[in-house]
Design brief:
Bound molecules: flavin-adenine dinucleotide
Number of strands: 19
Radius of gyration: 23 Å
Low-confidence stretches: none
Mean pLDDT: 95
Structural class: alpha/beta
Largest sheet: 7 strands, mixed
Strand content: 5-15%
Helix content: 25-40%
Number of helices: 18
Distance between the termini: 68 Å
């Protein structure tokens, strides 16, 4: 290991991941902690990293409180409805009451916002979305973080959290390696804010072979946001609540602007409105939830999946009407050019001009994330003024490990934050982290050289494994004594796909399949001790795989625990094919014991805080 130089950095606030939440956290940490040392560590390059790397066409979460458009309560009701009741309303409300101020800063920083010519307000795409020319969204927020941090480290993958050796269950920093130089980095920190994005590629994607890597969700989001806290025993919530997206086929181009702004609609291959056909069937499964407005996203997926299984596919988006209007046609194309160029290329390659041909839609493989339309992630403390006792333990957005905070995809129970809400949540977490330091909660943290050296051996082991095992390669990449990261990834994806509700089974699973998945995942974990890496890039792939596998174990445990089908269209429990409010109107919370690797799960009450408040006011 001597050839890998070790760098030590001591700081007050360490932000892991410089995406939307990480840039928000870095910016806000400086606001409250003028004299603190603030470091942000990013796996890629902060200017173009994370899910917003390529840009966005809409900011999906803006209340518009200055114009009385929406109030935070409205957003809580919206998210609650979309998630079939299962959200942390304290977290959602807290984000919503602050998100407008974030968007106003983006505007000041030069993000080109579209304006409604008549009203002068931000141009609405939908009730919550406002439209932007967002190709440079990420560089703009990155600049704010760069000006705020003492240092931004790019190209460093954080692999493990460090723990304090004087006080149990208190964080002490993080370690990782530089993927270009191979150097080892130790960040000893008083607080750590994990903002490392969600998890793609844990389920087998539709695109394999020559198209591998083409997914809706950023392929570089590898679940570090979950694996890092899970590994140190932090509690997680709603990890069963994976997301499946209805998107344009093959290019995964977004449909939001099409539905909301262009007013396009879907039909089956016979030109019928298929959603209506599945009303009674869905009502039988979920009861009155199907009558809610807007229809919860998962239930719209459900109709799509049922219709396809019944032979009504391909499902199409009717664009040929809207595209006759030259303005809408331009918006339709620009929507992709600002964030999903690939969809325009796919259509060109398939000879599809949406003015004359209605393009096909598809449902994606599942992903795990906490900021979009689902809410998998860490179990965190809420804000003091809103949270009931079960949801509050001192510092906003602090996990169940002291000094460890989260934001964006990391945080569970609070869906529909999107880019602006994730940045906002980063700000909230950073403010609380600074307060934690000011309250002297991070005093006398000890992280020994032994702990740091121990991780160094572990991190570089795949390089050692390869160096030895390559001598036994029998041909190509075939070797009896190591597996490559891609082989491990494909094995993981297949387990998740076939047993945990991926596309292979039309999102269907059951207890027996999940039990089998857990066995197979455990054996995969064992074999990952033998993962080999031939260079630093492959070393990153090896660690991405390990993080994905740990995340997958947690997802599988949660899916097994919730004995109902709460979100048909995201996944189905074939042995409990109905929504069961009597027994499962609750949040699920897990903890993995870092010593034994065993998970324990519990039910935690879901409090409908917003309407309780209203009821109290009325009485
Ligand atoms: C395809 C897609 C389309 C979307 N469209 C919209 C939209 O139109 N409007 C909207 O408002 N929102 C949209 N969103 C949502 C928005 O992008 C996310 O809510 C937001 O990016 C989440 O912020 P985050 O910081 O949690 O994750 P990210 O922004 O993804 O950032 C995570 C960061 O962590 C880094 N990282 C990961 N692992 C490590 C590690 N181990 N060590 C160091 N760094 C690490 C990553 O490189 C990345 O920079 C979309 C999301 C997706 C995936």
């Amino acid at each position: 290991m001597a050839k890998h130089k070790t760098h030590f950095e001591d700081c007050d606030v360490l932000v892991v991941g410089g995406g939307m939440a990480g840039t928000g956290a870095t910016f806000e940490a400086r606001h409250w902690g003028r004299d603190l040392k603030i470091i942000c560590v990013e796996k890629a390059n902060i200017d173009r990293s994370g899910a917003v790397a390529q840009g966005l066409y809409a900011i999906n979460c803006y209340m518009g409180m200055q114009w009385g458009e929406n109030q935070p309560e409205d957003h809580v009701r919206y998210a609650r409805n979309d998630l079939m009741g299962m959200v942390r309303e304290d977290l959602g409300y807290d984000m919503a009451r602050h998100v407008d101020s974030t968007v106003h800063m983006f505007d000041e920083w030069g993000l080109p916002m579209m304006k409604n010519e008549k009203t002068g307000r931000y141009l609405r795409e939908g009730k919550w979305q406002i439209m932007i020319h967002g190709e440079s969204y990420k560089p703009i927020v990155a600049e704010a973080a760069k000006k705020s941090a003492d240092k931004i480290y790019n190209r460093i993958m954080i692999t493990h959290l460090l723990m304090d050796e004087t006080k149990e269950n208190r964080v002490g920093g993080a370690v990782g390696f530089n993927m270009r130089t191979g150097d080892y980095y130790v960040f000893r920190a008083k607080t750590v804010i994990v903002a490392a994005g969600g998890a793609s590629h844990i389920f087998k994607p539709r695109a394999v072979g020559e198209g591998m890597g083409r997914t809706w969700y950023a392929p570089w989001s590898n679940g570090s946001a979950y694996a890092l806290p899970i590994a140190v025993g932090a509690k997680m919530t709603q990890m069963e609540n994976r997301i499946v997206l209805c998107r344009f086929k093959d290019g995964y181009g977004p449909v939001g602007a099409y539905f909301l702004h262009l007013k396009t609609y879907t039909q089956n291959a016979n030109g019928e409105n298929y959603e209506k056909k599945w009303y009674d069937h869905t009502k039988e499964m979920v009861g009155e939830y199907i009558d809610h407005h807007p229809t919860p996203t998962c239930l719209r997926n459900h109709a799509f999946i049922q219709e396809t299984m019944a032979g009504g596919g391909p499902i199409q988006m009717v664009t040929t009407e809207a595209f006759q209007d030259p303005h809408l046609e331009t918006v339709g194309w620009e929507n992709f050019l600002g964030m999903t160029v690939g969809q325009a290329v796919v259509w060109a390659s398939q000879n599809i001009d949406p003015k004359y041909t209605n393009p096909e839609l598809t449902t994606s493989e599942p992903y795990v994330m906490g900021s979009h339309a689902t809410c998998s992630g860490a179990w965190v403390s809420g804000p003091e003024d809103l949270s009931p006792p079960e949801y509050f333990w001192g510092y906003n957005r602090m996990l169940t490990v002291e000094g460890l905070f989260g934001a964006g995809d990391t945080v569970g129970g609070s869906a529909h934050k999107f880019s602006s809400g994730s940045f906002t949540e980063g700000r909230l977490a950073a403010k609380a982290a600074v307060k934690y330091i000011e309250d002297q909660k991070a005093k006398d943290i000890k992280v020994s050289d032994k702990q740091c050296e121990g991780f160094k051996d572990i991190i570089y082991k795949p390089l050692e494994t390869y160096t030895v095992a390559r001598n036994e390669i029998t041909g190509g990449t075939v070797s009896p004594s190591y597996i490559s990261p891609i082989q491990g990834l494909q094995r993981l994806q297949r387990i998740m796909d076939e047993y945990v509700g991926g596309i292979a089974t039309n999102y269907m699973t059951n207890e027996n399949m999940l039990k089998r998945a857990l066995e197979l995942l455990e054996w995969l974990q064992e074999d990952l001790e033998k993962v080999g890496a031939e260079d630093y890039h492959q070393l990153m792939r090896a660690w991405e795989l390990k993080h994905r596998t740990l995340t997958s174990q947690c997802v599988t445990e949660h899916t097994m625990f919730r004995k109902e089908t709460r979100w048909p269209g995201y996944y189905y429990r074939g042995d409990h094919l109905k929504l069961d409010d009597e027994n499962w109107h609750c949040l699920t919370v897990s903890r993995r014991d870092p010593k034994t690797g065993k998970f324990t799960l519990e039910k935690v009450p879901v409090y409908h805080i917003v309407d309780e408040k209203e009821k109290k006011k009325a009485s």
